[in-house]
Amino acid sequence: MDKKQIAKAFGKKATLYDTHARVQKYVGDRLLSLLKEQQVSVPGPLLDLGTGSGYFLPALKQFQGGDALYAADLSEGMIRFVNEHYQNVLSSSFVADAEQLPLADNSLSYIFSSMAIQWCEDYKRLFKELVRVVKPGGFVAFSTLLPNTLFELKDAWHEVDERNHVNRFLDSDSIIHAMSVHAEIQSAHAERVVAGYPDLKSLLHSIKGIGANTVVEGSGAMTKGQYVKLVRAYESFRDSSGMLPASYDVFYGVMQVPQE
């Protein structure tokens, strides 16, 4: 993955992100609920890793109480947006790659990361890094995407050409194994979240509106002929309510760093 390209794509959509991110908002709310279910209060800083537009920062501040709240994102554009809109709740924010955090060992009590780590390539290395910066007894809560995400779009594209247009994601068994290497698993489960759109144009616009068109690996602009074929192929998925579905298979994980 070209992380510079990913960061640039999301940064360009910072001001539009919340308008289109209904799936991301739902998933983040579910993840925060899972973290609250641990019913353990660990004093100390919380990091929103892959904060995006910062939408969850007020809720995270309320969860964490009076302790420090940090935000980090791969995208400089997103961090600029966060600084402009959430200075009142933030202790600090910074640009960072989740696989190489500029933080000291045992410096955090919590990491919250929703719909961000799918842009990382090595989950074992990632989780080792996250556990490194969280103190014993602290928590890492994350959500990410599974292989069947946007399967409708993937199948429709197969009717157009043979190229892969949808990114590949790690399966749940591999994620659970990577979690178990470095921490104690408190929660691990998957859920399919489906968003409906009246037509393909609005569906693709929504994906592009959150900067996630970087998920598309096929190079070059779509031709008019390709678009017509894609529309025709996607119509086979139109549901009983008259909407075109876009399915996201989401994995939720909560890990606790072992006590020393």
Automatic annotation (TrEMBL):
<dbReference type="InterPro" id="IPR050602">
    <property type="entry name" value="Malonyl-ACP_OMT"/>
</dbReference>
<keyword id="KW-0949">S-adenosyl-L-methionine</keyword>
<dbReference type="GO" id="GO:0010340">
    <property type="term" value="F:carboxyl-O-methyltransferase activity"/>
</dbReference>
<keyword id="KW-0489">Methyltransferase</keyword>
<dbReference type="GO" id="GO:0102130">
    <property type="term" value="F:malonyl-CoA methyltransferase activity"/>
</dbReference>
<dbReference type="InterPro" id="IPR013216">
    <property type="entry name" value="Methyltransf_11"/>
</dbReference>
<comment type="pathway">
    <text>Cofactor biosynthesis; biotin biosynthesis.</text>
</comment>
<keyword id="KW-0093">Biotin biosynthesis</keyword>
<dbReference type="GO" id="GO:0008757">
    <property type="term" value="F:S-adenosylmethionine-dependent methyltransferase activity"/>
</dbReference>
<keyword id="KW-0808">Transferase</keyword>
<dbReference type="InterPro" id="IPR029063">
    <property type="entry name" value="SAM-dependent_MTases_sf"/>
</dbReference>
<dbReference type="GO" id="GO:0032259">
    <property type="term" value="P:methylation"/>
</dbReference>
<dbReference type="Pfam" id="PF08241">
    <property type="entry name" value="Methyltransf_11"/>
</dbReference>
<comment type="similarity">
    <text>Belongs to the methyltransferase superfamily.</text>
</comment>
<protein>
    <recommendedName>
        <fullName>Malonyl-[acyl-carrier protein] O-methyltransferase</fullName>
        <ecNumber>2.1.1.197</ecNumber>
    </recommendedName>
</protein>
<dbReference type="InterPro" id="IPR011814">
    <property type="entry name" value="BioC"/>
</dbReference>
<feature type="domain" description="Methyltransferase type 11">
    <location>
        <begin position="47"/>
        <end position="142"/>
    </location>
</feature>
<comment type="function">
    <text>Converts the free carboxyl group of a malonyl-thioester to its methyl ester by transfer of a methyl group from S-adenosyl-L-methionine (SAM). It allows to synthesize pimeloyl-ACP via the fatty acid synthetic pathway.</text>
</comment>
<dbReference type="GO" id="GO:0009102">
    <property type="term" value="P:biotin biosynthetic process"/>
</dbReference>
